[in-house]
Amino acid sequence: MGKFRVVSLVLAAAIMGAALTSCDDGRQAAAKQAGSQLASAFAARDVSGVPMQGKEPAAAQQQLEAALKGIGEVKPAVTAGEPKLDGDKADVALNFDWKLGGQDWTYTTTAQLIRSGDRWLTQWKPDLLAPHLAETEVLTLATQASPRADILGAGDAKLVTARPVVRVGIDKTKVAADQQADSAAKLADLVKTDPGEYAKQVAGAGEKAFVEAITLRDEAGRTPTDEQIAAVPGAITVKDTMPLAPTRTFARPVLGAVGAATAEQVKNSGGAVQGGDTTGSSGLQAQYDSQLRGLDGVTVYAQPADLTAEKLKANPAARRTLFDKAPVPGTPLKTTIDPKLQQIAEDELAGVTPASAIVALRPSDGALLAVVSGPGGNGYNTAMLGQYAPGSIFKTVDSLALLRQGGTVDTRVDCTSTLVVDGKTFQNATGYPESSLGNITLRDAYAHSCNTAFISLRDKLSQAQLESAATSLGVAVDAPRLGAPAFLGSVPGDAGSTEHAASMIGQGKILFSPLAAAIMAGSVAKGSPVSVQLVLNGQAGTTAGASPSGTASPAASASAGSTTAGAASSATGGAASSAPAASASPTAQAGPPLNAAEAATLQDMMRAVVTSGHAGFLADVPGAPVGAKTGTAEFGSDTPLKTHAWIIGTHGDLAVAVFVDEGGLGATVSGPLLKNFLVKAAG
Predict the structure, then answer these.
(1) DSSP secondary structure string, 398-456?
(2) Where found in the cell (predicted)?
(3) Angle between the 463-472 and 395-403 helix axes, to the nearest 10 degrees?
């Protein structure tokens, strides 16, 4: 009996325990669900659907909105802890995480739940929102912007740094109300902005507002002058600083610009950007905005809802600090741009009307020294993102492919006046010397750029071999060290008969950017493929709503046919890659890297272009011997056809590509630009 009694007691206890556990589990799960619902409601800043005790949900929502109005529209992340049960009551920890100006404000409050039938109700109180928040208090947010970090160039030269500006506008306190519209129109006309739109802005601003019309660099010779501005009733200047490059145009398509954050940027930033913040709007300024911007200083206060500036001044203790973080300075962005070479190239292209570019790099380490897009591109990054038929500079790729098939610089080729392929007539560029026609060496065909000679080699070189040779020269491959969006070329591995013939002279579907052309030249000079680099320490985190690549691309022209009268043409949009570096031929069959022996032969051929070919004008450039290759690519349907003008050059540890859209012949249009650049760079 004793043993039976013990077993019975144990069994009864187990049954009772199971019943209690079952009961607790049911309450625990329900309380946990209620806590999670409450956390989600706070995360959405909407508690109107939360069951409550002691306050109507609508009234609680009204109080929540009032309490959080001063903190902006940012929403917190909120999670609920495990409920702690005490009969029909439960405490649930609510863990808040606010992202304010990029700073984390974290804290925990405790919600008290009461069971009512099969539901758990929240006991509403203001300190659910923030620790010790009183019934009559609200939260307010104050931010202190961190100075924006500089963008640096070679030798840590300051490319973009805080430079003096003046903000020009109407101070409505300094002009009678009935004269404000007239003053606004006069000032708008003076600073060359829309008078009607600016007058609306002035009219819609507060009675004591300063309404900015324009921000100008505060430099010698500025127009309009302070005297001209002061002559407009109510117009004033306010001195300030802004992150600016040395000049308005200096590397702007690459470096980008900054401005006041847009509503979209604020909305999409997750609290990292506040209204009125300065953010990057294009180029590297946008791509590396979070690195350059740093973190705002953030202070959150709890204060009476009716606290005014006067009351606060009289009683500073009326406001309590709940959270305070100092600004975190941004980190300067280091680039390889050489200010001297960049400015030389900018000056060379200043008067060029069509879209144009000069790209200079140092072959030994791949550093991009100058990346200039001329004014004809209307702000587009032609140098890095343009997509154009490279024309005869592509014969460098042909030549490498031929060397790999056993050819040499002395291989004999037939240079004829014309050549017909599948009914299409190809010819040499206008002005091709008759003395260089006939059975000539590969070196001479390259030096004088004989189209028909290279096209006649099409049966010895497949399209796939052209693709392979291009990748061996650093073209149409990834550039993992670049650090900025770029188009590095496209060389299809398959082509029809006529298209393959056109590919031999850098047309058909072959596309280069000026950057890709400079990389090809640099690889020849280095003796191995160049891995190009622009940004040295980038931590990309593009601000939502900004455009890393800058202005939308105009249609970039690319010849789709051959060097023949009436050749067909097509256009490519020149779309920017959103990745820091991109290959236009992701399926390209990479060839073996260019080796020293192959490079030496190509260097000899490029030197021949200067000593006996089209680029004799480069022979007197001081310093190391210059190597070059000219290129002209026809496109469009006009008569005569329009042409892209190219030239690539090497000069010691410098490789340069010059491009002019609708530019005529490479030797006569781009050639002088290259010579001037090299001479000044050497000076």
Answers:
(1) HHHHHHTTT--TT-EEEE-SEEEETTEEEEPPTT--GGG-EEEEHHHHHHHT-HHHHHT
(2) Membrane
(3) 100
Spatial distance between the Cα atoms of 639 and 280, rounded to a whole number of angstroms: 44
Q: Does domain 161-243 have CATH number 3.30.450?
A: no
Distance CA(663)–CA(673), nearest Å, equals: 12
Domain residue extents for the chain: 26-135, 161-243, 382-533+555-624+631-649+658-669
**Sign of torsion over alpha carbons 531, 535, 539, 541:** negative
How would you class 132 by CB atoms within 10 Å of its CB: exposed for 0-12, middle for 13-18, buried for 19 or more? Answer: exposed
Start-to-end CA distance of the chain, whole Å, equals 114
Q: In this structure, are residues 629 and 636 in contact, taking their beta carbons and an 8 Å threshold?
A: no
Render pLDDT for 416-444 as a digit per residue (tens, 0 to 9): 999 999 888 999 887 888 888 999 999 99
Percent with pLDDT over 90 in the chain: 76
CA distance 234 to 232: 6
Among 141, 453, 557, 468, which Cα is nearest to 325's?
A: 141
d(C-alpha 178, C-alpha 184), whole Å = 11
CB count within 10 Å of CB 470 equals: 30
Domain 382-533+555-624+631-649+658-669: top CATH class: alpha beta
Say whether domain 26-135 belongs to CATH 3.30.1360.120: no
Rounded Cα–Cα distance for residues 286 and 578 (Å): 12
Token reading at 604: 């000899």
In the block, which residue shows the tokens 């200079």? Answer: 360
3-state secondary structure of 296: coil
Q: Do 141 and 205 meet the contact criterion of CB atoms below 8 Å apart?
A: no
What's this model's pTM, rounded to 2 decimal places? 0.82
Question: Taking a C-beta distance cutoff of 8 angstroms, is the pair 193, 214 a contact?
Answer: yes
683 CB-contact burial (10 Å; exposed 0-12 / middle 13-18 / buried 19+):
exposed
Tokens at residue 561, please? Answer: 């046919």
What's the CA gap between 430 and 584, in Å, rounded? Answer: 31
C-alpha closest to that of 90 among 129, 131, 35: 35
SS3 of residue 114 by DSSP: strand
Cα–Cα dist 158/591, whole Å: 40
Cis upstream peptide for 224 (omega within 30°): yes
C-alpha 195/C-alpha 187 separation (Å) is: 8
DSSP annotation of 149 reads: P
Per-residue model confidence (pLDDT) at position 265: 76
Q: Report the C-alpha dihedral over residues 217, 252, 279, 190, rounded to 10 degrees.
A: 30
Measured CA to CA, the distance from residue 304 to residue 320 in angstroms comes to 10
Helix (H) or strand (E) holding 35: helix 2-44
* Whether 398 contacts 461, CB under 8 Å: yes
Question: Of 117, 101, 128, 100, nearest to 41 (Cα)?
Answer: 128
Is residue 666 left, alpha or beta, with left meaning phi > 0 and alpha meaning psi from -120 to 50?
alpha
